[in-house]
Design a protein that fits this description.
The chain has a 5-stranded mixed sheet with strand order 4-1-7-5-6, sandwiched between helices. The two termini are 27 Å apart. It has a single domain, classed as Nucleoside Triphosphate Pyrophosphohydrolase (Alpha-Beta Complex), CATH 3.90.79.10. By secondary structure, the protein is α+β, with helices and mostly antiparallel strands. Strand 5 and strand 6 form a beta hairpin. 31% of the residues are buried. The C terminus is likely disordered.
C-alpha cells in the first residue's frame, strides 16, 4: 500500500510557507491520501489537493520515502537520492512530495477543518504526529538549514 503526503508551498522560493491541516479534534498534518491502482504518486498528490482542499498544485520533487514494515512496525526513511531497488513489497510506503500552490488560492473546508501556512522551520512547534513527525525529524534541509533550498520546487 502506498500513501502520499503533499508539502504544499504557498509560493515557490526559499521563504515560502507550507500548508498544514487539521481535522476536527485531530493533530496537525500534511494533506495525505492513498495512491489508487490507476495512478502514479504525483497524480495522487494532485488529486488529494483538489479533492481535499479545492487547490490546484504543481507537484515538484520527491522529498523522502518512508518504509514501514508491517511485521514489526519499524519505519525507515529514505532520502530521495538514496532509493535502491530493494523495494520490500510487503512494506507500507509513505512518500512525501513537494508542491507549489498553482493558483495561490486558499484551501477550502471539506476533509479538514483548519488550515495554517507555516514556515518550515516552525513546523516542529505544531505537534505533527506519526509519519509526519518522523519525516520532519529526518528532513534536514528544513530543520538544520533554516530555510527552504532554492532548488526544491519546479
Amino acid at each position: 500500500m502506498k500513501t502520499v503526503s503533499v508539502l504544499i508551498q504557498h509560493h515557490a522560493g526559499p521563504t515560502g510557507d507550507v500548508l498544514i491541516c487539521k481535522k476536527n479534534g485531530g493533530a496537525w498534518e500534511f494533506p495525505t491520501t492513498k495512491v489508487r491502482t490507476n495512478e502514479i504518486p504525483p497524480e495522487a498528490c494532485e488529486r488529494a489537493a483538489w479533492e481535499q482542499l479545492g487547490m490546484k498544485i504543481v507537484v515538484g520533487k520527491l522529498a523522502m520515502i518512508g518504509r514501514k514494515m508491517p511485521s514489526d512496525g519499524t519505519v525507515e526513511h529514505i532520502a530521495c537520492g538514496n532509493i535502491t531497488h530493494d523495494t520490500h513489497t510487503k512494506a507500507l510506503w509513505h512518500s512525501y512530495y513537494e508542491a507549489v500552490n498553482k493558483w495561490q488560492s486558499e484551501p477550502q473546508t471539506g476533509v479538514y477543518d483548519e488550515f495554517k501556512w507555516v514556515h518550515p522551520t516552525e513546523l516542529i512547534e505544531y505537534g505533527l504526529e506519526g509519519d509526519d513527525a518522523a519525516f520532519l525529524s529526518k528532513y534536514d534541509p528544513w530543520l538544520k538549514g533554516g530555510v527552504i533550498p532554492n532548488t526544491r520546487m519546479v
